[in-house]
Amino acid sequence: MKDLKHLIFFEDLLQEANNDLVKQGKADGKRAIGYTCFFMPEVLLDLPGCFSVRLRAPRCTSPDIATYYMSARTCHYARSLLERALEGGYNFLDAQMATETCTATCRFQEHLQQKHLDTVKDMRIIENDDFFVEFSDVPFKKDAISIDHYAEQLRFHVLQPLHEHFGIDISDEALREAIEQQNEVSRLIREIGDYRKLDNPTITGYEFHVIQLVSLVCPKYLILPYLRETAEELKTREPDLKKEFRCKVVLSGSENDDPDFTKLIESCGARVVADRYCYGSQETRQIIEIREGEDPLRAVARHYLEQSICPRFMDQHEMRARKKRLADLCKEYHADGLIVASNKFCEYWSYERVIDTVIMQRDFGIPVCSIEKEYINAASGQLRTRFQAFIESVEIKHIQKGAQS
Prior knowledge:
The protein has helices at residues 7-13, 20-27, 42-45, 64-70, 76-86, 103-112, 144-166, 172-193, 205-217, 220-234, 259-267, 281-284, 296-307, 316-332, 347-364, 380-404; strands at 31-35, 50-54, 95-100, 132-137, 247-253, 270-277, 337-343, 368-373. By secondary structure, it is α/β, with parallel strands linked by helices. The chain folds into two domains: 25-168, Rossmann fold, CATH 3.40.50.11890; 243-404, Rossmann fold (3-Layer(aba) Sandwich). The strands form two sheets. A four-stranded parallel sheet has the order 2-1-3-4, with helices on both faces. Strands 6-5-7-8 form a four-stranded parallel sheet, with helices on both faces.
């Protein structure tokens, strides 16, 4: 297929957290607000006067210093973030909006808080005098009381601090403006992603992964023109005459902000057609609806609780709904199998991955490849062997099914 016009530019934006568009946003006088989890609604961090940056640690390979602070038994993702912070990679941040969700990332964000200790005169990791950290509690249920509680947490730990520290407009009008911008990003990303449903998709999983990531880590007002142009470009993009893949897969799992992992899967012969993982589009790029008479902040709280299919929700009906959702994605995107990849020492997704490996095959007849990996790909040879074997097994099932019919 013809190369996408902005792909190299998008790839370059992912090389550093403080990328060129982030620098431009800062130069425009806007505040950079970091976050790590879906449950910190990015739309609230994109109010006029500030912009959201979902944190990544690109090219981090050895989080040795962070391991000293966090131990080797916490996930590589959280340690890599702390390592990059210790290296000065997040000094551009004006605030970090944290959530009481994943314990490992909570620990990372606690380290970012400025500390005044008897043994250390002034221990601070982020070299920015304006920098502060706020933590919001996220309920484990999705009922009306939980939504109200979540909305109040967001009001007291996100909106009010942004207004008090930086003078950010947190009025209902400003919230509606931010929601409108967020919804345009979501519509464009979903439009781009829908080309993966074609029999011969006109966008690769790797390309989509890159595009989705830049929408998370760049100021929305600056990345939107490029997204609009890419969506228009894809309307006339022609697929390769010969399919460059042997099967299609849905990729699910924990934090995955490494497009090279998707590229590795596709180099083995499987086209990644749907992204049901942290940093993926299946949750983050749904349209936020404000119901008639509904307060916009409560609409945001309701949306982020109701849309989530995160494994931190452990009720039986929620667990069953997550399996059904995966099965529906496989059907919607015409996938032949499912790859579930969890980061090592990820508590939530380690359980979820084991359950998915059994349930998806037993109850839905969907072949599953189960992978435990580090945040950064170090064992690409071993992973390649696993993926190749899985793809061959999917092909054998197709042959056997054809013979029986």
